[in-house]
Design goal:
Elements (H helix, E strand, L loop, with lengths): L8 E3 L2 E3 L3 E4 L9 H14 L6 H7 L4 H7 L7 H11 L11 H10 L3 E5 L4 H10 L8 E3 L12 H9 L7 E5 L2 H10 L2 E5 L16 E3 L5 H4 L3
Parallel strand pairs: 3-4, 3-6, 4-5, 6-7, 7-8
Antiparallel strand pairs: 1-2
Helix pairs in contact: 1-4
C-alpha cells in the first residue's frame, strides 16, 4: 500500500513533504563526463564514425542510440558500438562528485530514503557504488536493464517509487541534464537540477526544475526534515 504524503511545497528555502530523494548517477553523483565522451568516441571510431566534443555537446542524450543516429551511425551497428563501449569503459579515471559521500550520509542521518535511477548499466554501477565509497546509502537502484523506456520517460522513476511503496509526490529526483528533469516532472516528483560537466547540463534552466543548485552539497540547505 502506498504511503500518504503531503504535497511538496517550498518555503524559506526549505523543501517540505519529501521523504525520498532519487538520484541520477552520471554527472549527478559521479564526474564521468570526460570518460563518457572518450568512450563514445572510441566506440564510434571502431564503427567508422568521427565523434567530436562539439557533437557530444550537440547530441548527448541519456538515450545514447538516439545520439548514434544523430551522428550518422546506421542502426544495424548500434549493438556493435555498444559492445566496444563496454569493452573500453572507462577511458579515464574519475570519481564521485565533490561532497557526494558527505551529502548522502547526512541526508540518511536526517531520515531520508535514497535511491538511484540511471540510464547506466548495472554491471558498471555495482562496481562504482563500492569503489567510490557509496555502498549502503541506497534503498533502491534502477538501471538500464530494469526498464524498457529510457528517460525522459518516467518508467524508471515510477518503478523506484513502487518498489519503495512511496507516493511520487513524496519523492524528489535530482539530475544534471534536461531528460532527468522532464522524467521527474512526468512522474509527478519534485525536480532538482544540479550542474555537471556534461555539456547538456547547461540547458537545465530551459526545462525549469523546481530547485536549481550548483553542487550536490547544496541539497543539505534545502532538505532538512
Amino acid at each position: 500500500m502506498l504511503s500518504e504524503c503531503a504535497d511538496v511545497s517550498e518555503g524559506k528555502g526549505h523543501v517540505n513533504g519529501v521523504t525520498t530523494l532519487l538520484f541520477d548517477w552520471d554527472g549527478t553523483l559521479v564526474d564521468s563526463a570526460m570518460s563518457s565522451f572518450l568512450t563514445f568516441q572510441k566506440a564510434l571510431a571502431e564503427c567508422g564514425v568521427e565523434f567530436t566534443w562539439d557533437q557530444f555537446a550537440a547530441h548527448f542524450t541519456t538515450d545514447w542510440h538516439r545520439m548514434y543516429e544523430a551522428v550518422g551511425l546506421h542502426q544495424s551497428r548500434f549493438l556493435e558500438a555498444d559492445r566496444v563501449w563496454k569493452k573500453c569503459y572507462p577511458c579515464v579515471e574519475y570519481h564521485a562528485v565533490a561532497g557526494a559521500h558527505e551529502t548522502l550520509s547526512e541526508l540518511r542521518n536526517r531520515g531520508y530514503r535514497l535511491g538511484v535511477v540511471t540510464s547506466g548499466s548495472r554491471w558498471r554501477l555495482k562496481d562504482e557504488v563500492e569503489d567510490f565509497g557509496l555502498s549502503g546509502f541506497f534503498d533502491v537502484m534502477i538501471c538500464n536493464e530494469d526498464v524498457e523506456r529510457k528517460k525522459p520517460h518516467p518508467e524508471g522513476l515510477l518503478k523506484a517509487a513502487s518498489l519503495l511503496s512511496c507516493n511520487c509526490n513524496c519523492c524528489a529526483y535530482v539530475g544534471d541534464v534536461p531528460e532527468d528533469i522532464l522524467a521527474g516532472k512526468e512522474a509527478g516528483m519534485f525536480t532538482v537540477g544540479v550542474s555537471s560537466q556534461y555539456p547538456t547540463s547547461r540547458k537545465l534552466d530551459e526545462v525549469q526544475p523546481q530547485l536549481r543548485i550548483e553542487s550536490i552539497s547544496d541539497l543539505l540547505t534545502h532538505f532538512r526534515r
